[in-house]
Amino acid sequence: MESNDVQADLKHVLYTREQIEGRVRELADEIDRDYEGRDLLIVGVLKGAVMIMADLARALHSHVTMDWMAVSSYGSGTQSSGVVRILKDLETDLMGKHVLIVEDIIDSGLTLSWLKANLQSRGPASLEICTLLRKPEGAKVEIDVKYVGYDIPNEFVVGYGLDFAEKYRNLDFIGTLAPHIYE
Ligand code: IMP
Ligand code: MG
Questions:
Q1: Is 107 one of the catalytic residues?
Q2: How does pLDDT run across 67-121, given as a tens digit for each residue?
Q3: DSSP assignment of 118-165, as one string?
Q4: Do 144 and 112 meet the contact criterion of CB atoms below 8 Å apart?
Q5: Which of 51, 105, 140, 148 to mutate to test the pocket of ligand 1 (most atoms within 8 A of CB)?
Q6: What is this structure's pTM?
Q7: Quick check: CB of 53 below 6 Å from ligand 1?
Q8: In angstroms, rounded to a whole number, what is the distance separating the alpha carbons of residues 57 and 65?
Q9: Which of 2, 63, 108, 131 could form an SS bridge with 103, CB 3.0 to 4.6 Å?
Q10: Does the C-beta of 44 come closer than 6 Å to ligand 1?
């Protein structure tokens, strides 16, 4: 879907399809450089990271393997609690591997800090995080993120994998919702 398809639902477009494409390519170039000569496993966190995983993986010039995890964060509504349950685990043994977690967005950081600790305990050679978006104002825990697409204001955003009540994931851009949608 394009912005014309959902115009009435939007407050504004934050990043266009072209902007995201360009930024993802820049991230891919950095990752190519940093992991040169090493085997890399990229781990996408379902469902939000599907779009960035697909685009990032295709923008890389090196071989990677890909795996997926699904987690649910207990808590009320849109607030993350930090108590995380694994809905789908990895199929790959992480022992001795260079692992890069790929996320759509980091808000409080609670989900990812749990996930990072969980994967760290599996003995990877290295473990880093790449996120398309980060909300610095939402941070509740310090978390070291090596690759960040964009730091954004503390607003609810949708599109390019990000949902509101499971909708809007298939927008080809990132936008903020009009208040009448969530109020
Ligand atoms: P955290 O544990 O607070 O960092 O939660 C991160 C998760 O909350 C993300 O993986 C998203 O699923 C969800 N989330 C946080 N902010 C937004 C947003 O603005 N739009 C859509 N989902 C969001
Ligand atoms: Mg997510």
A1: yes
A2: 999 998 765 555 666 778 999 999 999 999 999 999 999 999 999 999 999 999 9
A3: HHHTT--SEEEEEEEEE-GGG-SS----SEEEEE--S--EEBTTB-BT
A4: no
A5: 105
A6: 0.94
A7: no
A8: 9
A9: 131
A10: no
